[in-house]
Design a protein that fits this description.
single chain; 472 residues; alpha/beta; TIM Barrel; eight-stranded parallel barrel; two-stranded parallel ribbon; 12 strands; globular; binds 2-(hydroxymethyl)phenyl 6-O-phosphono-beta-D-glucopyranoside
């Protein structure tokens, strides 16, 4: 393990800040999402509707309580803290020329608080929280104009925070939308609000994704012009897809499924669409608006590192696929793996496999910017949280990461487990799906004192960091 290994934790603005309409912040897509639970999808309402419950409106009140929370992270020894900037705090509608100074000032304060303890902020530019106005007025990322709005926002924050922030990434889990049958992914990635089974969904997704990829590449180039020291990455959801058997058709189906999910990383890392995607566009008569200037931008804006989230793996079988792999609905249980209470397989070996897969394909440094176990925690009468299941999950994944580093020679820059402080789940809007080392007293209806408590995993992770991963 390198001595400058970036141990830390990760969150996203919309899942913890709250203060959704404070100090000039505009509504984002996350402010239109109701609460749900395992097996029930969050609704995305048209505007904020009376009588609906929107958990992201209050988050865990990090907007006001961040000094306490950053202090606790410093106590654990964090070297880095990954969060996002809420785009709609800076540009409330998204298409303004002038930014909202009160929004910029909040991140001045937050980053200063981190740096006070030697914690480097690591910033996602767009994490499921685009300004809602950009969806209403422009149709989201189906519109090429979004590239310009995103770049203006990126330039504003790159310039403002160039002396506080060195690590950036562009779009969170940009490849979630490959599952274009899921309203949640289409809305959170691209601001595409579609009717169920819209026949245009795949074509729209491919067009929106292309504009995001161009915006990402242009932002990388611009960031390097503003500060050549910046390290700017992409962010890929890494869920490796295994074949159920050694049957050649299963092997091929799994390979094709991997292509379907990971071509985004090719574009962002190698600067061009892989041949199978060009062939796919042709075969299906898709004509995404891809210009020569776009292709030049992609080449000129390749990323410095690959950011990835890793939670679980998928398994498929050729005979079970309707036509081809689209998303989770086509996956089958892996007989060798157990699953979490939310049905996510637990597969630490898959992390070592994923790190090697990404290293084999792209030869770039990797940064694990999310990993963790969503679980229900119990608080004892004396305010303890004995979360040994979380420790077991994280320990096994850190061991797998160390094997990739030490035995396979993969260059991993750091590790920031997800939801280092309990927050609102992205997928379900629940509070009870907890990932944190720090417990936050709040229930699924938004009731609770918001008091922060240290779980057993807090002390465990503190020791992991203090020993640079030697004492697990
Ligand atoms: P939650 C699935 C569904 C939604 C978001 O997820 C996801 C994933 C991951 O496979 O992505 C990330 O809260 C995301 C975070 C999110 C985290 O996974 O549904 O970047 O915003 O909170 C965990 O349990």
């Amino acid at each position: 393990m390198r001595n400058d290994f970036l141990w830390g934790g990760a969150v996203a603005a919309h899942q913890l800040e709250g203060a959704w309409n404070v100090d000039g912040k505009g509504p984002s897509i996350a402010d239109m999402m109701t609460a749900a639970k395992h097996g029930v999808e969050r609704q995305i309402t048209e505007g904020v509707q009376p009588g609906q419950y929107y958990p992201n409106h209050h988050g865990i009140d990090f907007y006001h309580q961040y000094p306490t929370d950053i202090k606790l992270m410093a106590e654990m020894g964090f070297k880095t803290f990954r969060t996002s900037i809420a785009w709609s705090r800076i540009f409330p509608k998204g298409d303004e020329t002038e930014p909202n100074e009160a929004g910029l000032a909040f991140y001045d304060r937050l980053f200063a608080e981190c740096l006070k303890y030697g914690i480097q902020p690591m910033i996602t530019l767009s994490h499921f929280e685009m300004p809602y106005h950009l969806i209403e007025a422009y149709g989201g990322w189906r519109n090429r104009k979004l590239i310009g709005f995103f770049l203006h926002y990126s330039e504003t924050v790159f310039k403002r925070y160039q002396h506080q922030v060195n690590y950036w990434m562009t779009f969170n889990e940009i490849n979630n939308q490959t599952d274009y049958t899921k309203a949640f992914f289409m809305a959170t990635n691209s601001g595409l609000l579609l009717k169920p089974d819209d026949p245009e969904a795949e074509a729209l997704m491919l067009q929106a994704a292309h504009y995001e990829l161009v915006a990402s590449a242009l932002a990388v180039k611009l960031g390097h012009q503003i500060n050549p020291e910046f390290k700017i990455g992409n962010m890929i959801n890494m869920t490796p897809i295994y074949p159920l058997t050694a049957k050649p058709q299963d092997i091929l189906a799994a390979q094709q499924a991997m292509q379907t999910r990971y071509w985004f990383a090719d574009v962002q890392t190698l600067g061009e669409y892989p041949s199978y995607m060009e062939a796919y566009f042709k075969r299906h008569n898709y004509r995404p608006d891809i210009t020569t200037a776009d292709r030049e931008a992609l080449v000129a804006g390749t990323v410095d590192y690959i950011g990835l989230s890793y939670y679980n793996s998928f398994t498929i079988q050729a005979d079970e696929l309707p036509t081809h792999f689209i998303g989770e609905a086509e996956t089958i249980p892996n007989p060798y793996l157990k699953a979490s209470d939310w049905g996510w397989s637990v597969d630490p070996t898959g992390l070592r496999y994923s790190l090697n897969w990404l290293n084999d394909h792209y030869h770039k440094p990797l940064m694990i910017v999310e990993n963790g176990l969503g679980a229900v925690d119990q608080v004892t009468a004396d305010d303890q949280i004995h979360d040994e299941y979380r420790i077991a999950y994280l320990r096994a994944h850190i061991q797998a990461m160390q094997a990739a580093i030490d035995l396979d020679g993969v260059d991993v820059m750091g590790y920031t487990p997800w939801g280092c402080i309990d927050l609102i789940s992205a997928g379900t809007g629940q509070m009870s799906k907890r990932y944190g080392f720090i417990y936050v007293d709040q229930d699924d209806q938004g009731h609770g004192s918001l008091r922060r408590l240290k779980k057993d995993s807090f002390y465990w992770y503190q020791r992991v960091i203090a020993t640079n991963g030697q004492k697990l």
